[in-house]
Every structure is written in structure tokens, then in C-alpha cells.
Amino acid sequence: MDKVIVFGMGKFFAEFAEKLFQQYEVVAILDNRLDVGKKEEYSYQGQTITVYHPSQIGKLEHYPVIIMIKDFWDVYRQLLELQVEDKRILFGRTMFSNDQKEKSIFAEGSRLMSQEGKLYFVDGEEEQAINSKAESRLFMHEYLRRRCKKQNPLIEAIANMPLTPFSRRWGAERGKPIDRYYIEEFLEKHKDMICGKVMEISDNAYTKRYGGDNVDESMVLHVDGWGKNTIKGNLETGEGIYDNWIDTLIFTQTLMFIYDTGKTVQNIYRMLKPGGTVLATVAGISQISRYEADNWGDFYSFHVDAVKRIFGEIFGVENIQVECFGNVKTAISLLYGLCCEDLKEEDFAYRDADYPVIIGIAAHKR
To answer: In the chain, what is the straight-line distance between the N-terminal and C-terminal CA atoms, in Å?
Structure first.
């Protein structure tokens, strides 16, 4: 195991200490925070290592020095001023970082190298001199852009995409909207909860599709009372809403268009019978729904944390189930107006919580 001196004991050092000590025998540590002339001790898994001020490096044996500071430029210049030979200086940033940017920059043998008092970025046979801290940062970003474009043709494809979507109707004129895939997956999963006296917003298509023979009575609620056999009621104000009224509420893609979400969920809780359930879906990543925005207002897109708190405070966190649907591919496809038929089944199977297209909430009144 090679012996080395380490420069720096900050966050970067702490993050990669385990990897560092697995690969090297650390014989000394340098830290600018230590007063000149003083020493400290650092312990790692029973090993005690002396910590020195960098000015004491001349008194130490001539082992390689690994800079364990991510923003390395000032330390690099300091080592040169302390007359540390170029060949002794190594850069922990090129060796240990988990950062995706670092992995891309220093992949395939690319590295930083000090030679004759100058810093070079070496990529294969190509060498690029870096003459300042600012130039170092600028070069890294420019180099990463070039490499990523070379390795990922998708970057160029996205950069050349049109500024307007293929469809502003979620692709509904050509097939099933992508968000509907997730909404229906959620309802299919919870269809056993759709039973008894069931209410749905605007129409009862999902009640009939997923409730079937378990539905004793189907009701439709609309704020303006539009449609045949439709009850006029307002979930935000409570107008037309009765206590302990229904067994199940199918409440899909509606909460985004209601300003007072807390009051709305309170009224939903009030209208459910004990043991009743609301099956709700809300949009995460989505375009503005122009029709609803013009008629009622399009107020929100949601995150999992928001719906957990909104429903949990009223139903109790132990009585809600929250599920996130979507990934970056389906999110982009939805925004551009692709439909389900444009994608593959496996595109929908993968879920990435950082790209929520639809969030489903099953909340139970105990």
C-alpha cells in the first residue's frame, strides 16, 4: 500500500475518508486551520495520524501529497510555493468524487497533472494548460459540455426540439393522454374500495368502469350542476355537501383547480360515511389546463410532501396511502403532447420519485 500525505480535512476529506484509507497508508495530514508550529492527532479506525500546518511539509518525508479539497486551486498553488515537486502532487478530486460532473470529467483516464509549476488537464494525448482558479472552473464546464455532447446524442436532440408542443390537448386527439395511464393504473389498484354509494366529479365513467356491481348508487357532482342526473355542489365552500353522505368519492384531477385545498379536503372528509374512502389523483409535472384555468383557475401542481400533509392533517397520516407515478421520459412526453400509444409499456413501469407526473391518494375515514 503506497504511503501518502493528505492535504485537507474538510467535507470532501470526510466524505471519502473510507476510500482514501482503503487505498493508501496515510502517514501525515496537512491542514491550514492548524496554527503554525502546532500539531494535532487524527484517529481513523484505531490508527493515529499527526496533523501539521502545511508550512511543516519540508520536515516530512517526500511522499506524494493528495489534495483532499474539491476546490483545489489555492492549495495547489500553496504547495508549489512550499517547493513541493510537481510529481508529488495528486488531486483527490480526480480520484474519489461521486459527483456526476466529476465522474464525467475524469472518466476514461482523464486527470489533472502538475508539471514545471503549471497545472494541466490531460485527456489521452491531449494536454490543456490551466493558468488560474477562474480558468480552471471555466475549462471544466466547457470540457464537460463537449464530452457530454459526444457521449449523449440526446443532448443535441433536446437542444433542437421545437419551442411549442406537438399537442396542447395531451395527445388526446390521437390516443390516450399519458397522465391517464397512471390515473387508471391507480384506480385499478384500488377498485375494491369503489363500492356502495359512489360519487364522481363531472361524470361517472370511472365509477362504472372500476366499481361495477359493487356500486349501489352512482352520483355525479359538479360545481355548476352540468349534465344529466348531476348534483350541484361545491367542495371548496361546502355548498350542497352533506355529512356522512357517500361511501366512495372518485376525485381525479380536480384539486389543482380549487384554491382552498385544506377546506376542500375537510368537506370531503365530512361527506364520507365512517369507513368511506376518497380516491384522488393530482397533477405533478403537467402543463396548464387552459379550459379549466379559464373557467375556474388552475392553481397548483403537487408534490408528494404536499398531499401527505394536506390529507394527513385531516384524515390522519395512518389513514392515507400516497403513490407517485412517472419518470423523466413520460414527463417530457406529456409536456410535448405525446400520447400513450407513442411510448412503450416499459416506459410507464419505471418510476422516479423526482419526476412525479401523477400522484395518487387513497384516504380512509375511520
So the answer is: 63
